[in-house]
Amino acid sequence: MTSSAPLQVTHEQVTTIVGHMDDEYITAIVDSGASADDVLEAFTWFNSEEAIGQDPGHHMTDLVRRVYAILARAQGEDEERRP
Question: How far apart are the C-alpha atoms of 70 and 32, rounded to whole Å?
Answer without folding.
Answer: 10
